[in-house]
From TrEMBL:
The keyword DNA-binding applies. Gene3D superfamilies: Winged helix-like DNA-binding domain superfamily/Winged helix DNA-binding domain (1.10.10.10). Pfam families: MarR_2. This is Transcriptional regulator, MarR family. The keyword Transcription regulation applies. It comes from Thioalkalivibrio sulfidiphilus (strain HL-EbGR7).
Length: 180
């Protein structure tokens, strides 16, 4: 089992000297940040599991349903932008929601290639009983931050990502619950 110190050593973050009095200020800060990130990740996992248990859909799928409720007739591309995910990921998610009879795709007008998305009656019923907020805990908490703190967090996370050897930039276009 990896300890916070061994995790840091592998990535070069915990290389500062440890004095006889204990870890350095930098090491203590690194350990605190790792614990805080773990709390964020676990909270997201817990939220996603509670949504799945309550609704039978993932947190990302629930957010998609809310977006279609707010703006009936969105295209797949529009929905992917609302959810901040790749269009192919949105399309795969819609396949699952369509199989559950929660959404429907409609082709209308002269250009039959244009597909618009709508909730079904069953999808609307699910939303009536669904917990809020639609975008989930992380989005709600970030929206509540003062702009200066949000900007500081953004720049700090950007610096963290720059320092990581193994990173998947495409992960930014997939839901956190990774179910879709």
């Amino acid at each position: 089992m990896a300890t916070p110190h061994s995790e840091m050593s592998r990535h070069g973050a915990g290389q500062d000297a440890v004095s006889p009095q204990g870890p350095s200020v930098q090491t203590a800060s690194v350990q605190t940040v790792i614990r805080q990130l773990r709390i964020v990740f676990r909270a997201l996992q817990t939220h996603s599991r509670s949504i799945e248990k309550a609704c039978g859909v993932s947190a990302a799928q629930l957010w998609a349903l809310w977006e279609l409720h707010r703006s009936p007739g969105l295209s797949v591309g529009d929905l992917s932008q609302c959810l901040m995910i790749h269009p192919s990921t949105a399309s795969n998610m819609l396949d699952k929601l369509e199989k559950k009879h929660l959404v429907e795709r409609r082709r209308a007008g002269l250009d039959q290639r244009v597909v618009t998305l709508y909730l079904t009656a069953r999808g609307a019923e699910l939303l009536e009983a669904a917990p809020a907020p639609a975008q989930g805990e992380l989005n709600r908490a970030l929206q509540a931050l003062p702009l200066d703190q949000l900007a500081s967090l953004e720049s700090g996370l950007a610096a963290l990502l720059e320092g990581m050897d193994e990173r998947d930039d495409d992960a930014a276009l997939r839901p956190i619950d990774n179910e879709d």
